[in-house]
Design goal:
single chain; 485 residues; alpha+beta; Heat Shock Protein 90; 2 domains; 8% strand
Length: 485
């Protein structure tokens, strides 16, 4: 290389050998572009090497240079993922280990300005840092951690090293013992800690009165913090247990309410279906008996079957409509049809009469003033009792009595014994004729049924009393007393 008169440096051409004579100065302006190009290539290669890539691979350089700013974030993400994968006990150990390292660093930094006055300084630094390390196991083994911190701290005082930092590590271990140990261990720890503090105050370098006050304040505050933490944890456990019990009781109450609702719906469906289907069955048998001799009476029975079926469909639609109403729909939609009550007792009696059962009805008292639940229950009891009389005592006579008192309502349905087969053959047939007669004195269903059980459940739901059974003349009586309050 040779310096020109203008001060510019000339780089050897690719074909030149180092040490040969350079070209004349007049050729320098023409060679400047070539020199710049030759210098740019090694510079790019050097930049690639410094960036960690290979020369001549700018894509690799760019990718690695773009990845470097994200490496700390990746390391933090990996550390967080590993921490999240730890068990709860290992998480506690990791947290306590981090606390121990931070306190050890603080203690070492507090002694660095005075290391020239500590002999030997390495031992003093080792003791102040070592008294914090047992904190890594403070929640796994509280008492051994306190002993480790306290012994190393007392050894530091016994060797008469000055400039001792605040006993934060023994205080934290002391608070952990107050928080997580059994009562007898806690009180033994209090006694041993008090003895250790008193002994350390007798050593040289602790002749100032405020030193003992500071020690008492630090360890007293640590004991209070540990005790409050223990009480808080106990309160949280008790609250969690109460919440679990409350949730379990809510589940039990919901299951009981669902079971009661299922029983109520089954009862309603039974009353609707059993009553109307029984009427239709009786009239269908009557149609078969009246044809072809009495077609007019058979037509009346057929009309009654149709009207009964329509009434059954109306009641079923009302019941199922209530069940299908959601919170987004109008709640009045399921109440478009009238709810059965004693105000419709005349319709019920007329329907049963049309089916062939002679019924007399007697009502006393203000029926319109009954509570809705009692009103519906009384109606369903009368409906079921009349249906049973129609099915199991054909040809008999029934009487209905409703008495409304200030405190209770009494409903009673009695039917006489069905006529004997011979008497039924000679007696004039009613219009329309009922189904073939059952054996005399029979007043209960032959097969299993839910009619009387449903009556008993309805009465029990209102807190009333029920009396039922056969009478002396072979009939059957159902008497229910329902309280109004």
């Amino acid at each position: 290389m040779k310096r020109t008169g203008s001060g510019a440096a000339r780089t050897a051409a690719p074909g030149e050998v180092a040490g040969e004579t350079a070209a004349p100065d007049l050729a320098v302006p023409a060679a400047v572009p070539a020199v710049r190009a030759a210098v740019a290539v090694p510079a790019a290669a050097a930049a690639a090497v410094l960036a960690g890539g290979a020369p001549g691979a700018p894509g690799v350089v760019a990718s690695r240079a773009g990845r470097r700013p994200g490496r700390p974030a990746e390391m933090l993400a990996r550390a967080a993922a590993r921490y999240a994968a730890l068990s709860p006990r290992r998480r506690e150990v990791a947290q306590d280990a981090a606390l121990a390292l931070v306190l050890a660093a603080l203690n070492l930094l507090s002694l660095l300005p005075y290391q020239t006055q500590l002999h030997p300084a390495w031992l003093a630094l080792l003791l102040v840092g070592g008294q914090c390390l047992p904190l890594a196991l403070r929640r796994v083994a509280p008492v051994p951690a306190l002993l480790g911190c306290g012994v190393v701290r007392n050894l530091y005082d016994a060797l008469q090293f000055g400039y001792a930092p605040l006993p934060l590590a023994p205080a934290i271990a002391f608070a952990t013992v107050a928080d997580r140990s059994r009562p007898w261990l806690r009180w033994c720890t209090v006694a041993c800690t008090g003895v250790g503090i008193a002994w350390s105050q007798t050593l040289p370098g602790h002749n100032q009165p405020y030193d003992a006050i500071v020690q008492a304040f630090i360890f007293g505050a640590a004991w209070a913090v540990g005790t409050l933490s223990r009480y808080r944890r106990v309160a949280l456990r008790a609250a969690a247990a109460r919440a679990a019990r409350a949730e379990a009781s809510i589940d039990v109450a919901a299951a009981s309410a669902a079971a009661a609702e299922r029983i109520r719906i089954a009862r309603e469906l039974h009353d609707v279906v059993a009553h109307h289907v029984s009427l239709m069955a009786v009239q269908a048998e009557a149609v078969g008996a009246l044809l072809p001799a009495r077609p007019q009476d058979a037509a009346v029975s057929a009309d009654l079957i149709g009207s009964t079926a329509r009434a059954a469909m109306v009641e079923l639609r009302r019941l199922l409509g209530v069940l299908r109403v959601t919170s987004n729909e109008d709640p009045e939609r399921g109440r478009l049809t009238p709810v059965p009550s004693l105000s419709r007792l005349a319709e019920l009696v007329d329907t049963v009469r049309d089916a062939g059962l002679a019924v007399t009805c007697e009502v006393s008292g203000p029926v319109a003033e009954l509570p809705p639940g009692v009103d519906l229950t009384a109606y369903r009891i009368l409906q079921e009792a009349l249906t049973n009389a129609l099915r199991h005592a054909p040809g008999a006579a029934a009487s209905v009595r409703v008495a409304c008192a200030p405190r209770q309502v009494t409903v009673e349905v009695s039917n006489t014994a069905p006529p004997a087969p011979a008497a039924a053959a000679t007696a004039p047939a009613p219009a329309p004729a009922p189904a073939p007669a059952a054996p005399a004195g029979r007043s209960r269903p032959a097969g299993p049924g839910y009619g009387l059980a449903g009556i008993a459940e309805r009465v029990a739901s209102c807190g009333g009393a029920l009396v039922l059974g056969p009478t002396a003349d072979g009939g059957f009586t159902v008497t229910a007393r329902l309280p109004l309050t």
